[in-house]
Design goal:
Length: 176
């Protein structure tokens, strides 16, 4: 019987809540989050447990990180994995949620989306410049690079729109 498996992510900008629910359902079946994987998560087999997962976004130095992790630990949440400022925590199903009001949820969304509009702008400019260069030089290599940049730019713009929509929804209804 296999001991590891991969599940895909819906994209944290688009389906953060659904991803965390999917991880909780997997834990109930005995598959527990081990780490982030390319466009998803790596799970390991264990005992079925009723747990909840939560993701948070922070850019911390080493000294801040330990204090941050201790704060979650005291609230009943255990760090499972982290990558590039994304931290996933697990807690028993009856543990109090970390983000309970609109203000803290808005802060979390702002931290999560802070770099994405900048990336969208930069990749859009790079895409336009590379398309112009490819037209002037008739270079297939530059055309391929332009296409790849276009894909990244479109994804960045989509993530920016998604986070903006979530922020508006949160401001209007108080829920994400």
């Amino acid at each position: 019987m296999r001991q590891r498996k991969y599940i895909s992510s819906g994209g944290l900008a688009f389906s953060e809540k659904e991803d965390m629910q999917k991880l909780a359902k997997q834990a109930a079946k005995g598959w527990h989050l081990q780490d982030f994987a390319f466009m998803g998560y790596r799970l390991v087999r264990g005992e079925p447990k009723q747990v909840q997962y939560m993701i948070d976004y922070r850019t911390l130095d080493e000294a801040e990180e330990q204090e941050y992790l201790d704060m979650f630990k005291h609230a009943g949440w255990t760090i499972v994995c982290s990558s590039y400022g994304m931290y996933i925590f697990v807690a028993p199903i009856d543990a109090a949620p970390i983000y309970t009001d609109a203000d803290t949820k808005q802060d979390k969304l702002k931290r999560a989306s802070s770099f994405i509009p900048k990336m969208a702008l930069i990749t859009t400019i790079m895409t336009l410049v590379s398309f112009w260069i490819s037209q002037e030089t008739n270079s297939r290599t530059i055309s391929v690079i332009s296409l790849l940049l276009l894909i990244v730019a479109v994804c960045s713009i989509a993530m920016t729109v998604s986070f903006s929509f979530r922020m508006l929804k949160l401001m209007r209804k108080g829920e994400d």
